[in-house]
Amino acid sequence: MVERRKPIPINEAVERVMKFSFPGTVETVLLEECDDRYLADDLLADHDVPPFDRSPYDGFAIRAVDSVEASRENPVELEVVEEIGAGTVAKKRLQTGQATRIMTGAALPEGANAIVMLELVQERTEGSKKIIVIKRPFKQGDSVSFKGEDTEKGTALVSKGTRITPGVKALLATFGYNKVPVHKKPVVGIYATGTELLDIEEELSPGKIRNSNSYMIQSQIKKAGGEPILFGKLEDDFEVCFQSIKNAIEKVDFLITTGGVSVGDFDYLPAIYEKLGAEVLFNKVAMRPGSVTTVAQLDGKLLFGLSGNPSACFVGCELFVRPILKSFMGSIRMHLQKEQAVLQAEFPKPNPFTRLVRSKATMSDGRLSVKPTGLDKSGVVTSLAGANALMMLPGGTRGFQQGDNVHVLLLDEEGSPDTWE
Amino acid sequence: MVERRKPIPINEAVERVMKFSFPGTVETVLLEECDDRYLADDLLADHDVPPFDRSPYDGFAIRAVDSVEASRENPVELEVVEEIGAGTVAKKRLQTGQATRIMTGAALPEGANAIVMLELVQERTEGSKKIIVIKRPFKQGDSVSFKGEDTEKGTALVSKGTRITPGVKALLATFGYNKVPVHKKPVVGIYATGTELLDIEEELSPGKIRNSNSYMIQSQIKKAGGEPILFGKLEDDFEVCFQSIKNAIEKVDFLITTGGVSVGDFDYLPAIYEKLGAEVLFNKVAMRPGSVTTVAQLDGKLLFGLSGNPSACFVGCELFVRPILKSFMGSIRMHLQKEQAVLQAEFPKPNPFTRLVRSKATMSDGRLSVKPTGLDKSGVVTSLAGANALMMLPGGTRGFQQGDNVHVLLLDEEGSPDTWE
Fold first, then answer.
1. Staple partner for A289: which of A262, A270, A312, B83, CB 3.0–4.6 Å?
2. Among residues A139, A90, A143, A91, which one has the least CA distance to residue A119?
3. B200 interfaces chain A, CB cutoff of 8 Å
4. Domains along chain A?
5. Which of A148, A151, A121 is nearest to A61 (CA)?
6. What is the pLDDT of residues A395-409, one digit of tens each?
7. Is the minimum CB–CB distance between A71 and chain B shorter than 8 Å?
8. What is the rounded end-to-end Cα distance, in angstroms, of chain B?
9. Which of residues 275-334 of B touch A (CB under 8 A)?
10. What is the mean pLDDT of residues B91-119?
11. pLDDT class for A3, splitting at 50, 70, 90?
């Protein structure tokens, strides 16, 4: 007896999952360890930038008033009374007729209000006295980088929800964040089900295959920023599966199982969800592969029942697991980024379901093009290895030709706040 | 006295660095921990795929010869003698008039040579006997996935030098790689020089700024796959800098310093390289920012003298450090990926040097466009935080207009085997 399931569109399935999204608790991590996390608060400037009036060049700090009369015919001489590097502070207040040698980034001495670039003066010495000669007038403020002119203290520079890249980290350091507020990483448990599964180090034996899905998902979870726990594999035995899954739920923020969601005689997941008292959000999605992807919730905790087929498992994880993990981490770019690309292959046969084809998207002359990675027989095996995109071919009555504009979901991009139709 | 340095083109600078590239020693890591490393060997199929003749569907395994006479008018009845799930092996060899109930992925029983899909039979029982009724003939091999038809044992599926993505990891698991050969991660030491530098947790004081470069580079190194060591900061004191740098070189595969490479009075790096006996590969590059970027080699070990200016430091790290680290890790895609994009801003002023402008590249309708991230005053501070690309504007006598095609180096992409002009 084959159970009848009602397929729902991909979009609706994603929405049903995302209703259970909430950000993880906020924790602080050391600046050294915050890479690729998401800011849980706006990044604020804790000081003015520049933090003091400073010199943008190597040169001399002067009192503008001393240069008013200066010209080629009537050069003005100033005595250099001090030399200051970046990080040191002038000890002397400039008096009439004096200048200070100043390095890039150093603070102006008291009394100074203009900077003269090194190239614009002549230097000479008179005994132990250092003299500079100026041949044009300078105005108050000339070449000075004024305190706060770039950014005022308290300004929000980067919004919460932004991923911490090297550039963001530079800002965090600049503004004194030796500890950084971020959201907790989601802990994601992974169980593979199926009597046919072997551990990786086991020799192949008749009827058996190695458990590749767990490791693939582990990698997908890490890439999304989560903390995977490999719980191992389970035989097709209802009681064993039920107890193991029940126990695992306690230890994780999200639980993923692979296999057992179809309508075969050994597909126990539907019955396990029922016995757990979990609410099934959907058990059929109008897509290929992965149509049997099932998601349930138990007290608000999501249980993802992915297909045991590697490609379907991969797609289910990217489409449904990724966005909820990203949102748990506080990202504002939860979903795979959808772009338009020029198709470099033929799909003559129409398909009633939306297809998600493992593909390679490449740029050429500033335009994105895409072709499937599984074009030949061995592509069945390697198509996931070469894919950086999922081509999204809508279901319907027509095929697709070379040169058509199609949509692709990019697997390696930061992501998008919006879902896709 | 200002030292005269001869600028060389970016391309030539990269080439001079890459002459010292060599892959790190090979080590094996656990499958669980190999993410984002690069395969040090081709990934080989350790078995045929499929590993045995198997059923791609839920259905029944039969002997084709028993169905030869079957038709709508003359249905053939077969007795179901066994039921096998994936992972179990049939105990019974099929005899004349028999069939085996078989699940997706299970191995064909001996004697069987065709699969009949579940939907194509009628089932009934006679007492304890299970019977299926077939109304058409099947040929030998119908719906059988034959051993080795996708991939033969020994086939190289993924080439060495490929990054380990979730899809590659799935293949590694499938083919029994519980340990994975990869190249050692490069250990990269980072020293910031400059008396003006404060630690992150220190309060600002006159003339001082916080050491943001070390943390930014730490993040860039991690992103490139290396293992950064933060050695801290050094005052502008020749002897202290010399000894610290000399000691640090022993502990790392590459050493980066920031600051001290210009021609100011406190820029000690050139003299330190000289005292170390290091050969300077270049100390001036025809680019903005980062023209003072200096690279030296000591017994084949590279010493990167990056500018103390954060943007110049960032650019120097991406252009010169990144590719050598990638090559050390065994990647075949060492350099930043260069693409064409439509300029969304004006650069009316020509510049004699090639400019590398911190920019945001975005896709729209399948086309790449780009604009600088530092368009306003506070952009000076935040331009690195928002950048995912470096716009590469060649030096010369003309400016650039909105709508021009320009080149961009994409910071978040996997990279390219080729360098750029």
1. A312
2. A143
3. yes
4. 10-25+185-328 (3.40.980.10), 29-49+151-183 (3.90.105.10), 59-134 (2.170.190.11), 337-410 (2.40.340.10)
5. A121
6. 998 999 999 999 999
7. no
8. 33
9. 310, 314
10. 95
11. low
